[in-house]
Amino acid sequence: MPPSIRLFSVFPFLLLLLLIISPTINASENPFKVDGKVLELDESNFDASISTFDYIFVDFYAPWCGHCKRLAPELDKAAPVLAGLKKPIIVAKVNADKYKCLACKHEIDGYPTLKIFVHGVSTEYYGPRPADLLVRFLTKFVAPDVAILDSDSAISEFVEAAGTHFPIFIGFGLNESMISNLAVKYKKKAWFSVAKEFSDNMTSYDFDKVPALIATHPAHNEQSIFYGPFEDKFLEDYIKQSLLPLVLPINEDSLRSLKDDKRKIVLTIMEDETDEKSNNLIKVLKSAASANRDLIFGYVGVKQFEDFAESFEVYKKTQLPKMIVWDGNEEYYTVIGSESIGESDPGTQILKFLEGYREGSVIQKRIRVQP
Length: 371
What we know:
With about 375 residues, the protein is of the alpha/beta class. Helices cover about 35% and strands about 20% of the residues. It has 14 helices and 16 strands. The strands form three sheets. Strands 11-13-12-14-15-16 form a six-stranded mixed sheet. It has a five-stranded mixed sheet with strand order 1-3-2-4-5. Helix 8 (about 180-185) links the parallel strand 7 and strand 8 (about 190-195). Helix 4 packs across helix 6 and helix 12 (about 275-290) crosses helix 14. The N and C termini lie far apart (about 50 Å).
């Protein structure tokens, strides 16, 4: 079975929405050969490609880069699938090590750097790189702003096709016009849909009246329900707060998701985020997070992300878990008398930490720059 057909089978619902025969492009108007292969761009044709294609996904690579070499065959597999969408996404690559002026213009400082250009405007891509997941991730850019779901089975298929990398919002008893503007604004960060028929889903999604907006994080097995008011401010606040899970595991990828969020981050630093003690503490942190949605809660294990953890004065003799409040940039705060969390009644200790922070009983510090 050809690779593209195998990929198609993973996304039956999205492909039903997105895939038909590609539009014919007049050769006299388009200097590029669109055949489902990865386009090779350079300084002579880059700008023309961006203006020619509404959606173009560009790999800025270096020939000597090991990560780039591993990525190349994945892009080769994804390219024909993405080119076959009703709104095609063209896959291209640039030797950024050779065409340094082009790399400088687009602020390339590492390899590979992946960007998707939508009507000429670029967004850096931080999603997964295996071909099937990359296709699933990129189809988000050309999917409807709000999917209209007309049956229980359509809801199930939509959720399955959306995958686990983005939060999913489903409006029950809502007119799509109520969320359409916000769906456009946050399209790159979440899936949005409105269910017209949902006889079986009131039980499965555990809501008891309509209108209701459900936010789910499949990767974290989390769900929340918003019953209004559905004025823009309240609705947007709910959507913004629901873009992240209650407690965010901090790693290189998730750090990028914090860039546009202005909330302070309550960060818990643990020895090993995967052990049983840490898992129990994370459950307690979720309870605190649900009651303090004006803050982001996150956790990191020294074992998993040592360099990052050490930025907050974590040393071999530091008593862990340690809690701080980080501004997402260069400053953070410790709370006087609540430098660490003991094993006895962590919920009360976390509450004391938050009270101390809100009362201003803090010491302001700057993150330690790694040598």
